[in-house]
Design a protein that fits this description.
This protein has 6 helices and 7 strands. It is of the alpha/beta class and 204 residues long.
Length: 204
């Protein structure tokens, strides 16, 4: 048997076709490929057709949810002009100045200290905080409203106090940004459009 084979399955989720991918792996998994409008069922080489069908049935709820999210992301992305590589470079240049200034302001107010700040053009995160106190921010934040930038900065700084998303963590965020829920909801609803716009503009 080949080391990797792909077979189309008779299942359709919205605009997404479904494929089973057989490969040299030990576990089963499900992946959504939003850019290709595909649902991939990944299984070990000798997995039976019956087991594949069972995996699709077991994962149906998860698949339907994430297909809806992917389709909405594509719709939202059409509302934002493509962000080209040159624009990403300019956004990164702006972010190097703006975001460290915001981080310094809020860190002083919160009584925390961070190590290093890195600016990136990420597809999945707006920011992150490492165990060593290093902060990473997405340069696309420069396309978002000022109050949303502040929310992301404070969110990551709060991880210096709580390296989790427990109630204690959100209490820390609320102390600094009482309306964080509104800002968080805005980012969840609209943020994906900018990620999609970057993917379109950079041909990803």
């Amino acid at each position: 048997m080949p080391q990797r084979t792909v077979r189309r399955l008779p299942y359709k989720f919205g605009s997404f076709d479904t494929y089973v991918v057989y490969s040299k792996r030990k576990t089963c998994g499900v992946t959504i490929k939003g850019d290709r409008h595909q649902v991939l069922i990944r299984v070990p080489l000798r997995t039976s057709a019956r087991r594949v069908d069972e995996l699709v049935a077991e994962s149906r709820g998860w698949i339907e949810k994430h297909v809806r999210l992917a389709e909405q992301k594509a719709i939202d992305g059409d509302r934002v002009a493509p962000i080209t590589a040159s624009e990403v470079k300019e956004l990164a240049s702006q972010a190097v100045t703006v975001l460290p200034r915001k981080a310094a302001f809020y860190a002083s107010r919160m009584g925390v200290a961070y190590n290093r700040i890195t600016i990136r053009n990420q597809r999945t995160r707006w920011g992150s905080c490492s165990a060593k106190g290093n902060l990473n921010f997405n340069c696309l934040l420069m396309k978002l409203p000022d109050e949303i930038q502040d929310y992301v900065v404070v969110h990551e700084l709060c991880h210096l106090k709580q390296m989790n998303h427990s109630p204690a963590f959100w209490a820390e965020v609320e102390r600094v940004i009482p309306d964080y829920r509104t800002r968080r909801a805005w980012l969840k609803e609209h943020g994906g459009a900018y990620i999609t716009a970057m993917e379109r503009g950079m041909g990803r």
